[in-house]
Design goal:
- The protein is mainly beta and about 130 residues long.
- The protein has one domain (about 1-15, about 40-130): Immunoglobulin-like (Sandwich), CATH 2.60.40.10.
- Helix content is about 10%, strand content about 40%.
- The protein has a four-stranded antiparallel beta sheet with strand order 1-7-4-5.
- The longest helix is centred in the N-terminal third of the chain and has 14 residues, at about 1-15.
- Keywords: Signal.
């Protein structure tokens, strides 16, 4: 039942008003010339790719998230899955991200993220799936 509530929450939060763009981190000074940068990947939301998502704590309160992703497109894609435990709308919260590269058209892949960060133990587990370039 917890899965259904989390899945509904994820779907509803994806449909709520807003730009659809991920929240940006606080603005910082630009890196000095020549300094390497590593911007976060940008992507297209792909909640329809997710199935069998589970996110549960073990006996010590450490969360593990598992699920499956299906590439429903006609091209090879890279999925990015981000999971955290917290309260929606709160300030930036720690999360765990995993990339699953080069998933063929029509193919499926499973994932597991262990030791998912817990920003607020009273919150729920949240998942975001995007395809990246």
């Amino acid at each position: 039942m917890r899965f259904a509530a989390v899945a509904l929450l994820v779907v509803l939060s994806a449909c709520s008003g807003g730009s659809g763009e991920p929240e940006k981190a606080a603005t910082t000074a630009p890196p000095s010339a020549g300094a390497p940068t590593n911007p976060p990947p940008t992507g297209t939301p792909a909640p329809e790719a997710l199935s069998r998502f589970r996110c549960e704590p073990d006996g010590t309160g450490t969360y593990t998230a598992t699920g499956a992703l299906k590439n429903r497109s006609k091209a090879i894609v890279t999925f990015q899955v981000t999971v955290n435990v917290g309260v929606p709308g709160a300030a930036a919260q720690p999360a765990m991200t995993k990339q699953l590269p080069k998933i063929g058209a029509g193919d499926s892949v499973t994932f597991e993220l262990t030791k998912v960060p817990v920003a607020d133990p009273s919150g729920a587990c949240h998942v975001q799936v995007v395809t990246t370039k």
